């Protein structure tokens, strides 16, 4: 898991059971844009993070309900959210 | 303000300084649908609530930054969100 974490340096461990990252924006439009892209990804992969959205900020928290903690899927989702945030 | 609150019975006062309401859904699609509609409304009215979104749940919290509390605009936004949730 330490190896997986190196791939997503922007994400923090949240109580050892979830990964969390916040993204800052200059407006609401940008923050909602990322949330919308993540929503489509989440639906396509059937792996849905918790999402917070407000003016200038979007945050995501992912964990795997079936194991009540982190699985490989959470790291993959985190990496894909990073890619969406760069695009 | 008591009169305004009667118009939006589904909303709770959050520390006397904000209005908050949660909506439950059977899936992620429905929850994101409401969030997307509220996002477009918020952008059009330049009044942006805090939004929480996860599988089966969307929540909104609104207050007015310029007065650090509730204004008439928050009650109007709450009522409009209720209408979007019914549509």
Describe the structure.
The structure is a homodimer of 87-residue chains. Chain A is an alpha+beta fold. The relative contact order of chain A is 0.23. Chain A starts with a helix and ends with a helix. Chain A has one domain: Transcriptional coactivator/pterin dehydratase (Gyrase A, domain 2, 2-Layer Sandwich), CATH 3.30.1360.20. Chains A and B meet through α2 and β3 of A and α2 and β3 of B.
Descriptors for this entry?
homodimer; 87 residues; alpha+beta; Gyrase A, domain 2; four-stranded antiparallel sheet; 3 helices; 44% helix; globular
Strand and helix layout:
The structure is a homodimer of 87-residue chains.
Chain A: H1 2-6, E1 12-14, E2 18-24, H2 28-45, E3 50-54, E4 57-62, H3 72-86
Antiparallel strand pairs in A: 1-2, 2-4, 3-4
Helix pairs in contact in A: 2-3
Look at the helices and sheets of chain A and give the structural class: alpha+beta
Number of continuous helical runs of chain A: 3
List low-confidence stretches of chain A: none
CATH architecture of chain A: 2-Layer Sandwich
Largest sheet of chain A: 4 strands, antiparallel
Name the shape of chain A in a single word: globular
Q: What percent strand of chain A? A: 15-25%
The H-level CATH homologous superfamily of chain A, spelled out, is Transcriptional coactivator/pterin dehydratase
Order of strands across the biggest sheet of chain A? 1-2-4-3
In angstroms, what is the radius of gyration of chain A? 12 Å
Number of domains of chain A: 1
CATH class label of chain A = Alpha Beta
Largest interface, chains and sizes: A-B, 16 and 16 residues
**Nearest-integer average pLDDT of chain A:** 95
**Strand count of chain A:** 4
- Please report the distance between the alpha carbons of the first and last residues of chain A: 26 Å
Multimerization status: homodimer
Order of helices and strands of chain A: HEEHEEH
Reported by name, the CATH topology of chain A is: Gyrase A, domain 2
């Amino acid at each position: 898991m330490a190896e997986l974490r190196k791939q997503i340096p922007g994400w923090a461990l949240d109580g050892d059971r979830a990964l969390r990252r916040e993204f800052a924006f200059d407006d609401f439009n940008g923050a909602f844009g990322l949330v919308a892209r993540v929503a489509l990804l989440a639906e396509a992969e059937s792996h849905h993070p918790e999402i917070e959205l407000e003016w200038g900020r979007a945050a995501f928290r992912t964990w795997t309900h079936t194991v009540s903690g982190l699985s490989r899927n959470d790291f993959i989702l985190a990496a894909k959210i990073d890619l969406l945030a760069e695009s």
